[in-house]
Give the backbone structure.
Amino acid sequence: MKDTQIQKLIKAEAKRQKNVINLIASENYVSKDVLTALGSELTNKYAEGYPGRRYYGGNEIVDKVELLCISRALKLFKLKPTEWHVNAQLLSGSPANFALYSALVPIGGKIMGMKLSSGGHLTHGHPLSMTGKLWKPIQFELDSQREIIDYDALLKIAIKEKPDMIVAGFTAYPRIVDFKKFRKIADACGALLHVDMAHFSGLVAGGQYPSPFPYADTVMTTTHKSLRGPRQALVFVRKDAREFDKKLDKMVIPGLFGGPHENNIAAVAVALKEADSPVFKKYAKQVIQNAKTLAKELQKRGWRIISGGTDSHLILVDTWMQGAGVSGKEASIRLEKAGIIVNMNTIPGDTRSVMDPSGIRLGTCAETTRGKKEKDMLKIAEKIDTALRAKK
Ligand SMILES: Cc1ncc(COP(=O)(O)O)c(C=O)c1O
């Protein structure tokens, strides 16, 4: 590389990544093949439009790339091309949710989603997100005692508010989501059911977490978390008389974007093929076993785990413990000094600020990719415990 300044920074980042224990729940380490596709000549191509109907010439190769990505996405999640449509051009999770809402919910319509402090994402209707400004957000919280979703409470809210769309899927919720119950709630109020499986899609692909597809009208996933691909997103919509496929595609281009990033789409295709394998199944299983082990060991050491445990890759730890411990911000600083990277996170019912909340979020996808097993989780728990309990 001729640009030594950037080359130095890339090398430094690679070294940093190697030298830390990475417990960021939304990160992972992609394969060399994914990196090769990302850094390929496909980045040079403008391809506004869709395979077979582009505005520019010279698309015969990238058309094949995009179609391959779409067919691999359908195969991985066991979907029939006659029943589901995929848009592979979304650049990341937030614009993907935004594009989908824009396509299917009239501006000013109601979108019901989980509150950020309960584990929802900004794009599920947070007031600071455009999704909370252009649409009327109906935000729900967790059951305050059990710290899990209270489906009966949700049903009541849905019947009262009659949202146009209900979003199921979260950024900091460690438990299995009952998509069948979400479907019933959506049907009871005539809402569309959108599942945002950004976090757990890799676990669904690996057969370790329930698939939302039998129940959802639409599904979004980022491809860079548990799915272990590049930073991109996929949106799936049911193919039927409602014409969600046409509405979504039209909203993506010309509605919101120009040319798709075909190098990213190729890298997604590579990741989808990698995920469609027995090795990935084993990986997904290990991710959850590691998370359960880490949660249990932290619990044994006296830390309060939100909802009492985890069913996924994700753990929420109450580090503040009503003043007996350290704040989430202090915890993340201490852990970084000890070589463990996490993010501070609000916990359900948090009374502290988002910038210095009561907890941290941990995830095991990245470290499991690096071959970590249960015994390593015990050591990591010990390190976390030591760092959090050290005197100032
Ligand atoms: C559930 C969920 N949806 C959407 C997103 C947004 O994805 P991105 O950061 O790629 O915009 C995230 C990211 O953390 C997420 O967890």
Observations:
- The pocket of pyridoxal-5'-phosphate is lined by residues 26, 92-94, 97, 121, 123, 169-171, 196, 198-199, 222 (CB under 6 Å).
- The CA atoms of residues 122 and 128 lie 8 Å apart.
- The chain has two domains: 32-275, 278-389.
- The mean pLDDT is 97.
